[in-house]
Amino acid sequence: NGCNDKSRGSLIVFEGLDRCGKTSQSGRLVSYLEKKGVPVESWRFPDRSTSVGEMISSYLANKSQLDDQTVHLLFSANRWEKRSLMENKLRSGITLVVDRYSYSGVSFSAAKGLDIEWCKSPERGLLAPDLVVYLDIAPEKAAERGGYGSERYEQLEFQRKVAQQYQTLRDSAWKVIDACLSVDSVEEQIREFYGLFDKAV
Ligand code: NYM
């Protein structure tokens, strides 16, 4: 997807279990790229600002009940509704740093026992990331980090299943980083991966 086209922005995705540090590390990468003068925007999924996103948010907060297939398709629809905007941004040279994407969609739903191929199919046709940063942390370690919040899925037993599903999704765009290193070392490694990736583009 335009990997050798310098005028296009890059799609960089952060993935990992809840409390692995994605949000702060993706924020740090955005600040770093801004300082380097790279046009960049920070994105996240679910995007809770749309009406689909509101339904997801209320489900995650346990304020509404939806069956597993329905919420899976809502998460996917939430990415589809942003697809053309994302494509336009990338085309206009903006790099997008995205906190969670299809890998979360598939891993969290497959962890509930849904068929993984079924989970993947609504993701087909979404934009493929150029670089995936997977912040690797043992579920037990993540649980120790100030504890989970009260949202759905934020439980050790479930996160173990999610971690297993993530492992089946690793592909050539993935860079795995040990999320138990210090915040600064993780940041440093992400910059290195970005540098190698940027040179290769
Ligand atoms: N989540 C996120 C899914 O189950 N499917 C998806 O497609 C996405 C993008 O939502 N526990 C789950 C993972 C998280 C939760 O995400 C909310 P966050 O990053 O905590 O706002």
From TrEMBL:
Annotated ranges, domain Thymidylate kinase-like: 14-190
Biological process, per Gene Ontology: dTDP biosynthetic process; dTTP biosynthetic process; dUDP biosynthetic process
InterPro entries: P-loop_NTPase (IPR027417), Thymidylate_kin-like_dom (IPR039430), Thymidylate_kinase (IPR018094)
Gene Ontology molecular function, alphabetical: ATP binding; dTMP kinase activity; nucleoside diphosphate kinase activity
Signal sequence annotation: none
Pathway: Pyrimidine metabolism; dTTP biosynthesis
EC number, UniProt record: 2.7.4.9
Family: Belongs to the thymidylate kinase family.
Listed name of the protein: Thymidylate kinase
Organism whose genome encodes this protein: Acorus calamus (Sweet flag)
